[in-house]
Amino acid sequence: MQGLGTGSISLFGSNEIKTKYLPPVRDGRHIAAFALSEPAAGSDVSAIATTAKKDGLRHVRIDGIKTWISNGGIADHYVVFARTGEGPGAKGLSSFIVDADSPGLEVTGRIEVIAPHPLATIRFNDCRVPVTNRLGGAGEGFKVAMATLDVFRSTVAAAALGLARRGLDEMAERAATRNLFGAPLANLQLTQAAIADSAIDIDAAALLVYRAAWEKDQGALRITREASTAKAFATEMAQRVIDRAVQIFGGNGVRVGVKVEALYREIRALRIYEGATEVQKLIVARELLKAHEATRRQAAE
Asked: What pTM did the predictor assign?
């Protein structure tokens, strides 16, 4: 979550902005947040209604509501996406850094979810921000958001991979130590199949996560398809693995305080935030079709 609120700054911030905002977060003195989602704009970023209107030559005034904001209410700064009107839909968005103590920024409510996570709704009411706090150029907000999510969708996939690995460890330990019908649960073929399916799923997801990370480390400007593929597969995979673990635990699997019960609650949100699985599938398909069309045009030439 710290990275999500600073990734945009690392990628698009001026040297002055980076010097001001990144070191305190790196040192653990400040908390960062990424304010993209709105009540009517989650997966559809082009539907953002928050506005940033010019206030003289050096400032904008931001008005609107952001919700489901990780670190909301405890962050020291927010990377905020707002409509600046350079074009329709996604072409008319810009991003700005807004300090948490800026007049006109208000935390209006906390959001409680099934696993502990700091979420809040925040409101901007005539919130005045320097134009120098803009990330990227005017109208480049969608580009900033998508480039940031390219990186951090991979980290969501990595988190899911870690949760799945813990689930498999718990499953294996339970199967080895729980006796059923006079023998360890692990002796049953259906138990072995659940363990094998989980191990195979985890290995496949790991390769997708590592590929996305490797592509970025090699200097790829965008890893949209790779990141979305990793996130979609790893989060859905982890849900399956942890569900199997709960089943292996039987009644204890849904008892509060048992690790697999906590994993079951923790994994569910990962299939939704930073773009639901269904959205990732759309992204993968569109990227593939875009590449296919480019190949066809090149062949025709």
From this structure: 0.90
